[in-house]
Amino acid sequence: MSAGKLKNLILVILLVANGFLMALVIPARREAALRQRQAREQLTRLFAQSDVALSLEEIPGTLELYPMEAFCAPEDLVPAAAAVLGGGVTKSTASGVEVTSQSGVCRIEPGGRLSATLNRSASDAAAEASSLLRQFGGRWTELTESGVGVYTARQTLAGAPILSHDVTFTFDGGDLLAVEGRILPEANRSGLTVCCGAEDALTSFLSSRLDLGWMGSRVESVTQGYVLTDGAAQGTVLLQPAWQIVTDAGVYRVDGITRAVTAE
């Protein structure tokens, strides 16, 4: 058999094999999607039986999140502080690092804590805050205005937001007056157990509502992300997968590993 015919035969075999695999995979995916929808419909009926409104649209897909750990020394955030102040002079302090400039002062502490007080001209508050987020590096949620002259964003890791901490920019007219929050480097996986799904988190919340003293009647949103806590070693940060459930009577979090439910 010539080389050309052999090549064509191999291509035909590969196409047939690919078609066979697709014939197996597509029905399996459809069946999985159907099972998931049926489970969600059953969950909404369970909530309805408890007089709690939950729409299918409020139940999101689940990311594969694991417990993570990060280390952030004060020196790691000096570039971020310089971006806020427009440059500056750095010196060590008893608790971390302090960066000063003509615009103001920025204090950095272990674990990614940054707090700046300044007076810096900013003709467009939203554009200025967005520019600083880009200079901080990493990925962030969409910038939101949480009050008059106050803009916030959350850092995201592995595609999920840090639910427990925002970075806040405070403006007064055309001036940037303060920046405060926590900024982390990339984190590393520290656990082997994957975060539970949205359906499991909602079931845990529903079964715990009496113990929590929850008297609401509606689930407004469900968000998967991380909760940040400080580790035993200075500068170490622990990130636990979690679900945030916003209701008409408060905000609650479900631990993505233990499924324990707490009020925010």
Report on this model:
The chain is an alpha+beta fold and 264 residues long. The chain has two domains: 3-66 and 189-263, no CATH class; 73-184, 2-Layer Sandwich (TATA-Binding Protein), CATH 3.30.310. The chain contains four helices and 17 strands. The strands form three sheets. An eight-stranded antiparallel β-sheet has the order 2-3-4-5-12-11-8-7, with helices on one face. β15 (236-247) and β16 form a beta hairpin. The model has no long low-confidence stretch (mean pLDDT 89).
Which helices and strands occur, and which strands form pairs?
Layout: H1 3-49, E1 68-71, H2 78-85, E2 89-92, E3 97-101, E4 104-109, E5 113-121, H3 125-136, E6 139-140, E7 144-147, E8 150-153, E9 155-157, E10 160-161, E11 167-172, E12 175-182, E13 188-189, H4 198-212, E14 219-230, E15 236-247, E16 250-255, E17 261-263
Antiparallel strand pairs: 1-13, 1-15, 2-3, 3-4, 4-5, 5-12, 6-9, 7-8, 8-11, 9-10, 11-12, 14-15, 15-16, 16-17
Helix pairs in contact: 1-4
Characteristics:
single chain, alpha+beta, 4 helices
Order of helices and strands: HEHEEEEHEEEEEEEEHEEEE
Q: Proportion of β residues?
A: 25-35%
Major beta sheet summary: 8 strands, antiparallel
Number of self-contained structural domains: 2
Describe the structure in brief.
The chain has 264 residues and is of the alpha+beta class. It has helices at 3-49, 78-85, 125-136, 198-212, and strands at residues 68-71, 89-92, 97-101, 104-109, 113-121, 139-140, 144-147, 150-153, 155-157, 160-161, 167-172, 175-182, 188-189, 219-230, 236-247, 250-255, 261-263.
